[in-house]
Write a structure and sequence with these properties.
By secondary structure, this protein is α+β, with helices and mostly antiparallel strands. The chain is 32% helix and 19% strand. Strands 25, 26, 27, 28, 29 and 30 form a six-stranded mixed beta sheet that branches. A four-stranded parallel beta sheet has the order 2-1-23-24, covered by helices on one side. The chain has a four-stranded antiparallel beta sheet with strand order 6-5-9-17.
């Protein structure tokens, strides 16, 4: 009876689907375990073998936990809104919904083929109105909330209104915009409703504001920082500029401290936690105000070194700082405007990363030193960012390397004075940036003090004269929440007199309208500006034609859509109760599942999705909708499976192609080659296939320079990518070798967290292992399993495997489990094991890794139903206890033979047996040894 993976895998995949084998219950008495993969985006290219790596790992854990008696939630769905589908729609005219639906069908087919134990009854898609109804609902909750620092949580905005009505805003300690003015209760109550609404926007957790954004003209949308690589859009490589736009934003900065504190409570890698700490960027220091000479304006700076206040030599503003156009002198206007225009073409990330380039322009303005009243020249420079701190720095070149380099670069030019030294240290060659080992000099009342005492004294004196105060600052900025695109969640917002109004939640979802074109309108509005039925009728409570807009009862709807991270910031909670039509998830379901026990996904989401998800979860907890502070208890970042790219080498005129071994010293250009035209094991190019391939029609008449009659391609490990033609389709592996082989091989490649290259040549060994496993149970005539009592060696082999595999799964060391399975099967084959007492638990043991063959073996052994919930084998140490020891017997330190003896013998008994052995007598040849050294369980040595 042979192992036919195609029949076995198809049969059990159908069985699982028909019987809903992996459906989780929301009311089980079993302990719960929630294992989750990061939301996949369904691209048209489908899955390559790198994509399932994390899914296989999470599936092993999910299956293992079911065997252990847990009620396991292991759901899957699709992050199906996004720019790629929209770009494809723009190019082809096809609706993004159609292409997304087709892509999802392709993904589902591939995922099913690999045999994942997903609970497909809970599938969600962010682009389905049934799902984004609740994304819109959460947006409304954020709009109707503010953050109270005294309570350290989000509260209903109605609470804040009640405070304003009774007390005004002078005493409130809440998150709000910087430009909020103080008003009394009487003043608030006298404000018009319009003015009240505009003021409340400055306090809401989601709000409209003019914001510096990354604008990509080619894509017609705003991009998040993590969507930009090297100053261009990650999608398409288009230029990105900085510009001000009115955008929806999320007040994530209010949660900065809680986001930091929460990192101490979760089981994530230290490197990932450090990424978030750096992104949040907590700094303790002082806020200082500098009066601009001859004007009403003040420049506020945040500094972590208030002790260096007397070393301020100049000031630098971000080019986008709102004061720049107001304080720049007429003489400097042209230079400043030119510099601002040039800077707008560089992304914030690019500016932060570029520490070598020094550039800036003097504004012509001066500020007053708060203590000495000396004039301080004000510059602009792109190393200062408008969104970080106040967008202004007090430059102390003697104590900061970047300020030092800036001052020296512009030394001797208008507006750059000599560097002031306030340390009793030499700064002739470099700045002194240490916080210890100095005393302050030339610093008035700070003379003789160190960093700590100087900082405290400086803040005290600044507070006395009203020029500053102690402050904690965060690098984390509020998240822009608008995108000028079509394929995203519509906002549940209409506008009355330019002010946003929330649509009542009972009328959700507000469904994405049909449009003729997915591009921005001719007058620059977002694509929803092309919609003809996109107005809100406040009487009918329905979306109606734009022609009815009268700004009395019918009003325009929001034209922006939500960003890609909106739907993925709460999806794990929807999985808890995916079919619920009346709430985003029932209280019972949320209380049962709590949060995700194990989350697996890529580290590239460290400061994007993972930060936003934690923010939304904390907010939902504040408002009583979530039970836990953190959404993901344990997080593992899987490494990348790299592709083995292939190259041919062409001459400059493209008329000649040289084999790899012949290119030394030649001026040739490597060209990526599709893996379908090479032998992946021998690296030989199939020249005729190459010529016939549509990608390489330019080389039909090229001359191929061969080595030993063959054209050998070059190979290089790179990121697996369609553009590099090094993608391996998992379908091909499943068809030829089976899904169980693919699953085992991906785990076998190396530790889960590490990057590793794919090599198809190695997969045959894993396939051979499965066939060898099969032959333990079957011969050509069928099942050969017997009920005889196994030998001690058989039990030993089984239980050391149980021990190893259990430890490996608990430690997420899946690659070494596969090695142990191979060792186990080899040993059992040598032991001629056909014993049910060994082979039944072995089938359960391998089930998380190779579920199809395990199901078939379990069924053939005479069991009904699925193996999925059969109890996992328990390790018993007694089977690994050694009763005998093979001793090396040495004469004068040289080992001559070995002898196997029981471990419970005394030293005298061991000596008697060894001395009586004929091999000992032969070595001694009648002599009596001077000494017999015996260490029980270790050595026997006869001396003299």
């Amino acid at each position: 009876m042979k192992y036919f993976h195609e029949q076995i895998e198809a049969r059990w995949q159908k069985y699982w689907a028909d019987n809903h084998t992996f459906a989780a219950s929301n009311s089980s008495e079993k302990p719960k375990y929630y294992v989750l993969d990061m939301f996949p985006y369904p691209s048209g290219a489908g899955l390559h073998v790198g994509h399932p790596l994390g899914y296989i790992a999470s599936d092993i854990v999910a299956r293992y936990k079911r065997h252990q008696g847990f009620n396991v939630l292991h759901p899957q769905g699709y992050d199906s809104f996004g720019l790629p589908a929209e770009q494809y729609a723009i190019q082809t005219g096809q609706h993004p919904e159609k292409t997304t639906r087709e892509n999802i069908a392709r993904y589902r087919e591939q995922l099913d083929k690999i045999g994942f134990s997903f609970d497909w009854d809970r599938e969600v898609r962010t682009s389905n109105p049934e799902y984004y109804k609740w994304t819109q609902w959460i947006f409304i909750q954020l709009f109707e909330s503010y953050y109270c620092y005294d309570a350290n949580q989000a509260l209903p905005i109605a609470n804040l209104v009640a405070i304003f009505e009774k007390e005004g805003n002078a005493a409130v300690n809440v998150a709000c915009d910087d430009d909020v003015f103080v008003f009394s209760a009487n003043e608030w109550n006298a404000f018009s409703e319009d003015k009240k609404a505009r003021l409340l926007l400055k306090y809401r957790l989601t709000y409209l504001a003019e914001t510096e954004v990354n604008w990509c003209p080619a894509l017609g949308t705003v991009l998040a920082n993590d969507e930009i690589v090297n100053g261009v859009s990650e999608r398409g490589g288009h230029p990105v500029i900085r510009k001000k736009m009115t955008q929806w934003s999320m007040r994530i900065s209010a949660y900065a401290e809680r986001l930091l504190e929460g990192l101490e409570t979760i089981d994530w890698t230290e490197s990932l936690k450090e990424s978030q700490r750096n992104w949040i960027g907590k700094s303790v220091g002082a806020s200082v105000k500098f009066q601009v000479s001859g004007s009403k304006f003040q420049i506020e700076v945040f500094t972590t070194r208030p002790d260096t206040i007397f070393g301020v030599t100049f000031m630098t503003l971000a080019p986008e700082h709102e004061l720049v156009p107001q304080i720049t002198t007429p003489e400097q206007k042209a230079a400043v405007e030119a510099y601002i225009e040039a800077t707008a073409k560089r992304s914030e990330r690019e500016r932060m990363a570029d520490v070598k380039t020094i550039s800036g322009v003097f504004t012509g303005a001066y500020a007053e030193h708060p203590f000495t009243k000396e004039p301080i020249p004000v510059w602009i420079g792109d190393y200062v960012l408008a969104g970080y701190g106040t967008g202004a720095v007090m430059a102390v070149p003697c104590g900061d390397e970047r300020d030092y380099a800036f001052a020296n670069y512009f030394k001797g030019t208008l507006g750059m004075p000599e560097i002031k030294n306030i340390f009793n240290q030499d700064i002739s060659e470099a700045a002194f940036a240490e916080k210890s080992g100095f005393e302050l000099v030339a610093s008035d009342f700070l003379n003789g003090l160190d960093y700590k005492a100087g900082t405290q004294k400086a803040i005290e004196e600044l507070e006395k004269i009203g020029a500053g105060k102690a402050k904690v600052n965060y690098r984390l900025r509020d998240a822009v929440f608008s995108r000028q695109r079509y394929w995203g969640e519509p906002f549940p917002v209409y506008y009355v007199n330019g002010l946003p109004q929330m649509i009542d939640t009972q009328h959700l979802p507000i469904v994405l309208p049909e449009v003729e074109k997915y591009l921005p309108t001719e007058d620059g509005q977002p694509p929803l500006g092309n919609a003809t039925t996109w107005a809100w009728d406040t009487k009918q409570c329905a979306v109606v034609s734009n022609q009815f807009i009268d700004n009395v009862t019918v009003f325009p709807l929001e034209l922006n859509t939500m960003p890609g991270w909106a739907g993925s910031s709460w999806y794990w909670m929807r999985y808890m109760d995916a079919q619920n039509e009346s709430e985003f998830a029932s209280e019972n379901a949320i209380q049962y599942w709590q949060n995700v026990d194990l989350y697996i996904g890529g580290s590239e989401h460290a400061t994007g999705h993972l930060l936003y998800a934690r923010f939304w979860n904390k907010f939902l907890k504040d408002r009583g909708f979530a039970p836990t502070e953190e959404p993901f208890k344990k997080l593992i970042n899987q490494g990348m499976i790299l592709g083995m790219s292939a190259f041919v080498y062409r001459s400059e005129d493209s008329k000649t192609l040289y084999s790899k071994g012949l290119i030394a010293g030649l001026n040739v250009h490597p060209i990526h080659v599709d893996l379908s035209v090479i032998n992946d094991i021998t690296n030989e190019l199939d020249i005729e296939k190459f010529k016939a391939h549509p990608l390489y029609s330019d080389y039909v008449n090229a001359e191929f320079i061969l080595e030993d009659g063959k054209y050998i391609v070059g190979r290089e490990v790179e990121k697996m990518s369609k553009s590099k033609y090094n993608v391996v389709n998992p379908d091909d592996i499943c068809n030829e070798y089976g899904a169980d082989t693919l699953r085992l091989y991906e785990m076998f490649l190396g530790p889960l967290e590490q990057a590793k290259p794919w090599n198809t040549a190695g997969i045959t060994g894993v396939y051979g292992f499965l066939k060898k496993l099969w032959r333990l149970y079957f011969d050509d005539n069928g099942l050969v399993v017997v009920n005889d009592e196994p030998t001690a060696d058989m039990y030993k082999t089984l239980h050391k495997t149980i021990k190893k595999v259990t430890e490996d799964i608990e430690n997420f060391s899946f690659n070494t489990s596969v090695s142990q399975f191979m060792i186990c099967v080899n040993e059992l084959a040598q032991q001629k094991c056909r014993h049910r007492a060994i082979l039944e638990p072995l089938a359960v043991l391998i089930s998380p890794y190779a579920p199809h063959i395990a199901e078939e073996l379990w069924n053939q052994l005479g069991h009904e139903g699925s193996i999925a919930t059969v109890a996992f084998p328990q390790f018993e140490a007694k089977y690994l206890v050694e009763s005998e020891k093979e001793y090396p017997v040495s004469f004068n330190g040289k080992m001559r033979f070995t002898i196997k003896l029981p471990l419970d013998l005394s030293v005298a008994e061991i000596e008697a047996i060894v001395m009586a052995d004929e091999r000992t007598q032969q070595q001694l040849q009648g002599r009596t040894p001077n000494k017999v050294i015996i260490v029980p369980g270790k050595i026997i040595n006869l001396v003299g």
